[in-house]
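Table S2 (continued). Query chain:
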Amino acid sequence: MEAAGAGRARPESGMELYAWLFMRVSGIVLLFLALGHLLVMHVIHNVETIDYQFVAHRFMTPFWRTYDLVMLWLALVHGLNGARTLIEDYVSVRGWRVFSLATLYILGFQPVGG
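Corresponding output:
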């Protein structure tokens, strides 16, 4: 079931199907989140109005905290899933593939903070 010009067929079932679907949905959601961020931070407000107080006030509201957190989490997981797909497609030696995926998961999901 491979589309013309596509490098990879749509998966039939299992985890790869969910990863494939996640990439499509998260890409659309990320597009709207990023455009909303650009609109608020760079069109409605300009460089002269954005200062520490503006960012601190924006960060105190639950809506903007959630908005930014969802955008960052989606971007992280979307990027990691894309990197995972590239590694699985282009790293053919099993040992290097396991090493590359392990490194990706360790770097991508390490705890933040101290």
